[in-house]
Amino acid sequence: MPATPDSKVYRPRNPEATKELLLASAGEEFAEHGYAGARIDRIADGAHTNKRMIYAYFGDKDGLFSAVLERQIGSLVQAVPLIDGDLVGFAAARFDYMLANPKARRLAAWRTFERAEPTAAERESYRARVDSVAAAQRAGKLTSDIPAVDLFALVLRMTESWLSAPPGMRSAADGDPQSKERLEEHRAALVLAVRRLVEPTPQNP
User: Fold this and answer.
1) Which of 74, 126, 181, 188 is the most buried if burial means most Cβ atoms within 10 Å?
2) First to last CA, the chain
3) 0.90 cut: is pTM over it?
């Protein structure tokens, strides 16, 4: 039977390679359109495979979205570790990562808007980081005036305070709000603000 102009020929692939292609294509699609707006057909086309492979490897669209999130969480944790509760270093590194990876920022925003329940990987990641903050507080490295979970939440949002600021807010800055100079200025302000927030309260003699 001759191929029609609209038909697609899908060559057999290594299963692991196909899964990687699907995850990469899905990451682009979810980052651009969110969960609700993402289309299985476009994801399959981007991976040069059949959409049936999505259901074979990930169960359904929700399973694929969860897999993309877990992949992104793993990449972020590896690139931006929280070592010994060092929230200042963490804040600077996370700002750099999110600046260099706009797709990760968009995916995180869509995830917050469209999915209420965290994945197991998300729970584990945040629990480990809050525990690291709590351990640093007990060691006297961080202020204990703010509960560990709240302190980490504040610093986490501070790392994206400029990158996710409304356009009107960013327009209040002199010059181009995305210029190298402006971003470096904000990064310095971020590091200073986090340091002042998290440093231990001096003890009275």
Assistant:
1) 126
2) 90
3) no
